[in-house]
Amino acid sequence: MSRTALVTGGSRGIGAAISVALSNAGYQVAATYAGNDAAAAAFTEQTGIKTFKWNVAEYDECAAGISKVEAEIGPVDILVNNAGITRDAPFHKMTKEQWSQVIDTNLTGVFNMTHPIWPGMRERKFGRIITISSINGQKGQFAQVNYAASKAGDLGITKSLAQEGARYGITANAVCPGYIATDMVMAVPEKVRDGIVAQIPTGRLGEPEEIARCVVFLASDDATFINGSTITANGGQHLV
Ligand code: CAA
Fold first, then answer.
1. Nearest residue CA, atom 22 of ligand 1?
2. DSSP secondary-structure letter at 92?
3. Catalytic site residue 27?
4. pLDDT tens, N- to C-terminus, the chain (240 residues)
5. What is the pTM of this model?
6. DSSP secondary structure string, 110-154?
7. Where are the domains of the chain?
8. Could you say which of 3.40.50.150, 3.40.50.720, 3.30.470.20, 3.40.47.10 is the CATH number of the domain covering 4-233?
9. Are 113 and 8 in contact (CB under 8 A)?
């Protein structure tokens, strides 16, 4: 039977491309979303991929939602922690609420999703945890103290899980996308965005499918010896 993949934030943007690419690669895919019912319904109608609604920032919602997915589709073999938000503001203007919203979703959300799935992966001696970090977790970013901290933290989670999971056949890896043509990046003021594109040697924003292909590779049996790694896909904007 084909493996089951669960993609958080999997009905829009990079997550939608990941869900579709994994489905095309033969996995059974479930996608979660937090709020946009219309987008999720349209996504399911177009792709046939089931969507489930919960907030990754809430541990109990994750545990209950994962149980539902496992009952309907099967035990989760591949978890893609993709759900993420921005609340950009220069530090002197950033509120505690903006800090907490981003940390709760992008960082604690990874804990909340991975923790309930982890024991089953250990028992079954197989798992793939793939977390979507960001170029801005690697280099920092003006107006993103919250986001950069969350995405850098995601790399710390990944490297630690890699060490704990290895003996159970579980790998944990991260992908650090650069600026990708999604709603999140399109929300950046146009003038600022133009300035960002000017810093990308490839001369354009990335496409969600270019990130999705990295995830399909990390999920595959071709990536068995890759553990605790980061695939950086940013058009050459930041070299690590
Ligand atoms: N470096 C240095 N200075 C900068 C700057 C930068 N990157 N960006 C803005 N500034 C400066 C401005 O020129 C302005 O200076 P002055 O006061 O001298 O004019 C000041 O900082 C900004 O002051 P504002 O009062 O205008 O700031 P604001 O409260 O209106 O906030 C902003 C504006 C939120 C910073 C807006 O410019 C913005 O959204 N910037 C983009 C931040 C960004 O790149 N976010 C990434 C989103 S995409 C993503 O996160 C996905 C991913 O993983 C890559």
1. 90
2. G
3. no
4. 699 999 999 999 999 999 999 999 999 999 999 999 999 999 999 999 999 999 999 999 999 999 999 999 999 999 999 999 999 999 999 999 999 999 999 999 999 999 999 999 999 999 999 999 999 999 999 999 999 999 999 999 999 999 999 999 999 999 999 999 999 999 999 999 999 999 999 999 999 999 999 999 999 999 999 999 999 999 999 999
5. 0.97
6. HHHHHHHHHHHHHHHT-EEEEEE--HHHHH--TT-HHHHHHHHHH
7. 4-233
8. 3.40.50.720
9. yes
User: Do residues 161 and 114 lie in contact, with contact meaning Cβ atoms separated by under 8 Å?
Assistant: yes
| The one catalytic residue among 27, 147, 168, 179 | 147
DSSP secondary structure letter of residue 205? P
- Residues in contact with ligand 1 by the CB-under-6-Å rule are 86, 88-90, 93, 134-136, 141-144, 147, 179, 184-185, 188-189, 192
Q: Two tokens at 203? A: 């001369």
DSSP 187: T
